[in-house]
Amino acid sequence: MKIQYQIIFIGLAIAGLFVIPVKAQQTYLSGTARSSIEPRTYPFSVALAGYGYPRGGRFSLEWIKMDNVRWGKLAGHSTTFTVLDKVMYAADKNGAVTYAPIKRKNANWRKLTELEGIISLASYKGRLFALTANDELMRFELKNKNADWVKIAKFNGLSYDVHLKSIAINNGKLYGLDKNNNIFEGRHRTDGNLSVSAVAVAAEKQTVLIVGTDVCGFNHDFISSIKQQVFRKHKIPPSAVLINASHTHFAPSTQDWTTWGGHQLPDSVYLNDVVKPAMIAVIESAIKSMKPSVLSFGRGKTTIGANRSLEGAEVPYDNDVDVLSIERVKDHHKTLVFLTGCHPVFKNEGIEGFTVSPNYPGVTRALLEKETGVTDALFIQGCGGDINPLSNDHVKTGNDLAADVKRILNSPLQKLSGKVTFYLDSVNFPVDRWSNERIATFRKENDNGKADVNAEKNVRWADLMFKLDKSNKIPASMPVYIQTINIGNWKLVGLSREAVTDYSIGVKKLWPGKLVSVAGYCNDVSSYLPTSRHIKAGSYEGLGSFFWYGQPSVFPLNVYETIIDKIKTQNY
User: For 21-50, what is the mean pLDDT?
Assistant: First the structure.
């Protein structure tokens, strides 16, 4: 560790040379920024990620009755139609959707697509929206005439609890009409505090960024595109930017859940027009707002979680809570980065299951900013792959974690000093792919027609493997990305995928007595990252989840040892 000395010269002319060495406090440049990633009015409804249940999905749309607004008697029609960009689209009682230019005389109607049970049709920004007789809202992309209709909302008796006969779109808002001619406005049911935050830290012309995002996960190519844009504009390499997903199970879908069904895929408008610009904006704002700051580290314990997967003696759980405190020198503006490993997952029941929310990390953030004088609090998800909260109440869990963090802040913190460095590497595990015969047998066993969510997922997984095989696109390897950010004497190791708690314990043992924090869910959340214990037990983390994630195989038994040895050998 470098020690800086402030040299004070006193009484040179009178008493001769008198030098007093004083250890100076390390000052870094640091900046922070936050931006909302709440879904906007359009898209009108988004699928919530994190659960395969209930069958058919969870969606953010909520119908709000507009008081004192009622239509009079309406004439009935055997067809429903809409107009978009000078083209009329009509659906007949059999579900056939046709289209024709409205300004061309004697134009022929052409078949576009088909959807059974359409009772109302609307259009907006290159998309058709259909209301069906079984209380579902469907979306069709007009730019792709071969596309399938995608479900974007359905009756659930809670947030979507009305039976509509018609829908309409006006000034970018979605409206519905029931049989009594009551008008409802479609809105997102949300807690209103979904966000992305970034912290930038620099020393000796090296800058690193830590980004925390209220999403369930993301694809590696999506994160790569963000990092490349940052590099092009600010010359900060991708290896210096760590992007973490909180893994809340109540955020809009932002990654490919191919085997969950088409309705679970991300809405491109939300992903590319809301999330991506917000992530880039907070990174740039954090860089531009950097000021001289003092950084300190603290560690405590928590009891919010427990291992949900393993049983028997010595069940692992890294219950550390790590805190990075950042205080600006001039105005004492305070930022906190806090990290622990625990799933933001609770019972998928009641109205909470259909509410957009950052879950317990959002509760903790709000409390810390209200009660500690901290202006910005940023949550980083640790290795919580097999750790669930003990309480079913996410507000209680958030309160408990906030109390843990406050205890750390009220204890002596260790000042950080030294260089800023960063590394990014990967381990590529070979795919142990199934034979086509095994996949076919697996598909047949699950194609039981019983509308079972798990079986339907397995059938879609088999179809995906056949599709990839036909186009020669089954991956040959499964990469695990390892990123390290060193800020003086603090080391943050970020692993991709849903790393289980053993990885945090194992990485910390490589540097005993040092300030080491370990995060999962970094840069790519494409599967779980289990140990041999999970794989041998055939647990969800070690086997079943790989079908949900659409992965070509599970990891080899030595996946944990290989990753830990890689980190140890490279000494990042």
Answer: 90
36, 129 contact by CB (below 8 A): no
pTM: 0.92
pLDDT in tens, 59-110: 999 999 988 666 554 433 335 878 888 888 888 888 899 888 877 666 788 8
Cα-only R_g, the chain: 27
Residue 52 lies in a domain: no
**563's tokens:** 């990753």
Q: Is the peptide bond before 43 cis (omega within 30 degrees of 0)?
A: yes
Of the given ranges (21-30, 405-414, 430-439, 561-570), which has the lowest mean pLDDT? Answer: 21-30
pLDDT score recorded for residue 24: 63
Among all chains, which residue has been given the structure tokens 């919530």? 48
383 lies in some domain: yes
Is residue 455 pLDDT above 80, yes or no?
A: yes
Contact 245, 381 (CB under 8 A): yes
CB-based contacts of 176, cutoff 8 Å, min separation 6: 63, 131, 162, 164, 166, 167, 168, 183, 184, 186
The last residue of a domain, from among 140, 171, 188: 188
Residues 10 and 51: their CA atoms lie apart, in Å, by: 69
Do 162 and 239 reside in the same domain of the chain?
no
**Which string of b and e fits 377-390 if b means at least 16 CB within 10 Å?**
bbbbbbbbbbbbbe
My answer on whether omega of the bond before 292 falls inside 30° of 0, hence cis, is no
- Report how far residue 369's alpha carbon sits from residue 377's, in angstroms, rounded to the nearest whole number: 7
- Residue 15: inside a domain, yes or no? no
Buried b (16+ CB within 10 A) or exposed e, 188-213: bbbbeebbbbbbbbbbeeebbbbbbb
Query: In the numeric block, which tokens belong to residue 513?
Result: 């007595």
Domain with 119 in it: 61-188
Beta-strand pair 376-381/334-340: parallel
pLDDT(1) > 50: no
Longest dimension (CA), the chain: 107
- Which candidate, 417, 382, 394, places its Cα nearest to that of 299? 382
Same-domain pairing of 178 and 304: no
**Is 60 exceeded by the pLDDT of residue 400?**
yes
Residue 16 lies in a domain: no
Q: What is the pLDDT of residues 378-391, one digit of tens each?
A: 999 999 999 999 99
pLDDT of residue 117: 94
Average pLDDT over residues 151-176: 95
Q: Number of structural domains, the chain? A: 3
Choosing from 188, 209, 234, the residue where a domain stops is 188
The answer to whether residues 446 and 416 belong to one domain is no
Angle at 119 between CA 118 and CA 123, to 5 degrees: 80
Strand partners, 423: 484
Residue 521 has pLDDT above 90, yes or no: yes
